[in-house]
Amino acid sequence: MKDARKDTVLGHAGRSPRENHGIVNPPVYHCSTVLFPTLEDLEAGDQAPFDRINYGRIGTPTTLAFEQAIAELEGAYRAVNTGSGLNAIATALFAFTKTGDHVLITDSAYGPTRRFANDTLVPYGVEVEYFDPTIGAGITGLLKPNTSVVFLESPGSLTFEVQDVPAIAAAAKTVGATVMIDNTWATPLFFQPLQHGVDVSIHSATKYIVGHADAMLGVISCANEAQWLAVKKAATRTGTCAGPDDIYLGLRGLRTLAVRLKQHEASALALAEWLSKQPEVTRVLHPALPDCPGHELWKRDIGRSSGLFSIVMNAVPKPALSAMLNSLELFGMGYSWGGFESLILPARPAAVRTATRWTDPGTMLRLHAGLEDADDLIRDLDGAFARLRAAL
């Protein structure tokens, strides 16, 4: 689909009705064993089109359809599916690190990314160092000859710093480091990191790609063949793969991603603007707002926004916070996001920062605007603030 816009690619990538009896959606292949037709094929270890030695975990037509669609959306060489977003992060980091390496990770990274790095990479002899997400080209001062990976997340999914991705990528290339990014917030629709110097783009497809809060899925896109082979080998050696039904749900989610994101974006902006006017709210952390740090970088590189953002309020005692949140009707309290449902969650970034300090003494709440009517969501929040005021 040369020159097709992303909305069109979403509807057509990764499917071929002519090859499936005219059926619009690719079939779901449930597979563990792949048979060799002859002894000669078995002894040759025939690998085309699917690796029969490693059987169904290597892939099926369902797997390839999903990976081809993601790769086309991100302008990647190829993609690799995994069982979750964290599985994708871990697989990518395994693929490009070894004992004695130095890895740089943004201080705003997803909590489980930090835990994997600290609890798995460090015991294996990898030096892990965290950096200020606003460092930009200044990351040059942290790079070492043995820096193998620079890991980004822009914006951060808790505090929403936007990183200068091209500047960091250019600096990392001077020492041959592989540049990775967790691109879940922006999705392949709003940001194509491989066009900005990134080598490996990672998504928790559980979130916006699946979009219906009913499947766990991850995906890794690679800029070139060598990077894809490294990731594929890491996935193969650790038995990493997603189930066919979850992959099918990822394909289903892709078809409606554009229209869902329009609603997520519009509702989140409406909520952010309303929240900014509440006297208890001291800051709204949403990159699309002009007064949010990193807004200019967001405008330059991304320009669109999804449904996830945070607010900082005056410090709220626990009983008052419970009164505020416990009786919400439309917002649920849960750690995931990206689905059709709206969510709200207290957050404590100071507890996880190491390269930077989070000194704001206020109470932070992270919100995800789902697909409900924005006015109804505002009414739900209005009631929450009324309960908060009554409890103070």
Walkthrough of the structure:
With 392 residues, the protein is α/β, with parallel strands linked by helices. Helix content is 36%, strand content 15%. It has a 7-stranded mixed β-sheet, sandwiched between helices. The protein has a 4-stranded antiparallel β-sheet with strand order 8-9-11-10, with helices on one face. β2, α5 and β3 (127-131) form a beta-alpha-beta unit. The chain is globular.
Search tags:
single chain; 392 residues; alpha/beta; Aspartate Aminotransferase, domain 2; Aspartate Aminotransferase, domain 1; seven-stranded mixed sheet; four-stranded antiparallel sheet; 11 strands; 36% helix; 15% strand; PyrdxlP-dep_Trfase_major
**Biggest sheet statistics:** 7 strands, mixed
Q: Let me know the average pLDDT.
A: 92
Shape descriptor reads globular
Radius of gyration, in Å, reads 22 Å
CATH topology of the largest domain: Aspartate Aminotransferase, domain 2
Reading the helices and strands in chain order gives HHHEHEHEEHEHEEHHHEHEHEEH
Low-confidence stretches: none
> Could you tell me how far the N terminus lies from the C terminus, measured between alpha carbons in angstroms?
58 Å
Count of extended strands: 11
Residues in β-strands, percent: 5-15%
Main β-sheet, spatial strand arrangement = 1-7-6-5-4-2-3
CATH architecture of the largest domain: 3-Layer(aba) Sandwich
Report the CATH superfamily of the largest domain.
Answer: Type I PLP-dependent aspartate aminotransferase-like (Major domain)
Q: Structural class from helices and strands?
A: alpha/beta
Total helical segments: 13
What portion of residues is helical? 25-40%
Name the CATH class of the largest domain: Alpha Beta
User: Structurally, how many domains make up the residues?
Assistant: 2
